[in-house]
Amino acid sequence: MAERKNTLAPRDWWSKSAAGLLLGLGLALGCSGLFHLAATEMAPSIRAQLTMWTVMPIWLGVLALVFLFRSGKRAWLGLGAANVLVIGTWAALKFL
């Protein structure tokens, strides 16, 4: 009987971890910036605190979910595209 290859074995986990750490931080900061722009009705002190505290849960969520990508290359490309989209949207809303 032929052995089946373990499809659940960790693949490119160094690359996925690096993508989650580096690009996940950029994505979390971009989402936090979008929240800051959207929450104009809040008091400034509350808005600043919520903006600051949204970074860590988003970053940790990205870092946890990055291992669902099939390869490290896909993780870098997917998170890179998400960063461009989020930070581009933030820049467009901020400066236009």
From TrEMBL:
PROSITE patterns per UniProt: PROKAR_LIPOPROTEIN
Alphabetically ordered keywords of this record: Membrane, Transmembrane, Transmembrane helix
Domain of life: Bacteria
Transmembrane segments: 20-38, 50-69, 75-93
Record protein name field: Uncharacterized protein
